[in-house]
Amino acid sequence: MTLRDRYAGVLDYFQRTQPEPTTELEYRDPFSLLVAVMLSAQCTDKRVNMVTPGLLSAYPTPAAMASAEVDDILTYIKSVSYPNSKALHLQQMSRMLTDEFGGQVPDTMEQLTRLPGVGRKTANVMLGLAFGKAAIAVDTHVFRVSNRLGLAHGKTPLEVERTLTRHIPAAQRFKAHHWILLHGRYVCKALRPDCPNCALQPWCKSYGKL
Known about the structure:
With 210 residues, the chain is an all-alpha fold. The protein has 2 domains: 3-21 and 135-203, Endonuclease Iii, domain 2, CATH 1.10.1670; 30-130, Endonuclease III, domain 1 (Orthogonal Bundle), CATH 1.10.340.30. Helices cover 57% and strands 0% of the residues. The protein has 11 helices and no strands. The protein has helices at residues 3-17, 30-39, 45-58, 62-66, 70-77, 83-100, 109-112, 120-130, 140-149, 157-167, 173-186. The longest helix is centred in the middle third of the chain and has 18 residues, at 83-100.
């Protein structure tokens, strides 16, 4: 099977079965999405959705969160992973948005990754979900599944991102982020991939080897 055939089969399957995939994070605007994505690092979306309503009710804008004490932010997010560093990053991110970006979330990779606590993966999620740009965010699920399927053979998330970007049409790139992520979350799990019930068997390079 050629790499082109593998991509064609996987993308066609997802497009037919999940034509409009989206995030499981709950948000109302770019700022609340950014907060949620930052909190979701090494934490479940379900847990994040439990803490963001209270946090964003108390601090609904960058200016409001920028004026909060770190310990006050911490009281709302203490049940997520790494709450201390995330509380600090949320305060610092909000201050930079307020001081340098007029309270608006920027829409370029360069500006987003200047924000404290925002790496390339979070920036790509924002570019695709908040601003509709052709971006592929590579989290642990996307990294693992892309390598297993044989869509990309990268040792780093950036290598996988670049390979996926080369082979996935721009119109499908951010959809593909959701497709692969959700497949990794519910089917191609890290420890116990459900290969017998996986619809991607015909195109999976690792099928029968895991």
